[in-house]
User: What shape does this take?
Amino acid sequence: MTTSPTPLTLPAARKAVRWFQKAMRMRDWEIHLEIQDDPPEWTDEDRNSRTAGMCSRQRRYKIAWLWVSNRACRNEGGDRSVDPLVALFHELVHVASSEGCWAQDHEEVGEFVVERLARLITTAYRAAQKYPKAFGNG
Ligand SMILES: [Zn+2]
Assistant: This one.
């Protein structure tokens, strides 16, 4: 992406999460969102982290914590920016994935697949927002 990505707001993130939960039959999950530049304490990241997003989940209790950093997504001075909405769906794919996929979390192939899925889901979400009658707007 060459242009600066649109920053993600908390209300926009909540809307996307609601849509995802409905589409993926995950409405019984409790998903906590943190859309802020500085990493939350549970991430163990340092303040200057360049990580676009992270998640933590308790599968048994169906609770997840998601963090997306607009600052890290802009990646100023870096070679590529990240769409924060893709970063959000990326973390949601981790939350929705099986334990096997979760175990591959930091493996290159697993991450590549999660990222591809996140981009496809972002495209589907944007289409659903644009054409609610055709896709349902959750
Ligand atoms: Zn990931």
